[in-house]
Amino acid sequence: MSSRKKDDRPAPGDTIVPRKAAKPQFASMVLQLEAFVVAFAALALYGLRDSVFEKGLLVLDSTAAMWTVTGVLFVVLLVLSRMVTRPGGYVAGSVVQVPVLALGLLLPMMYLVGGVFVVMWFVALRLGGRVDAERAAYDAQHPETAPNA
Known about the structure:
Layout: H1 22-47, H2 63-82, H3 89-95, H4 97-102, H5 109-141
Helix pairs in contact: 1-2, 1-5
């Protein structure tokens, strides 16, 4: 049983589990969501392959090429979502935004969707860093509630 007081402050001797950093969590979440949007874009491309509706500036005649392009991008996004904490992870995540936007060449609606995710990516980096800085400042002012790891 926990020896927590009514105000939820840790008792002497309690261990406080450190919080995970917000910036990598936000960045990873955006890349994972983006991967599934790419998967749904692949399904849309496959469904519209014989359509008379307007297609993008680039048309892939081969179904295999379409699945390969979107499949590789899907896997790259998922792998990068797990690597954001490593050196160069945020840079690689920023670079992979270009091919997501380039999917607009195949499916014009991806310009809009990719643009939304580019904005989400940079907001995640900015706000995640801000949340981490505010947590660090709070922990410095309140050492009794700071993680003792």
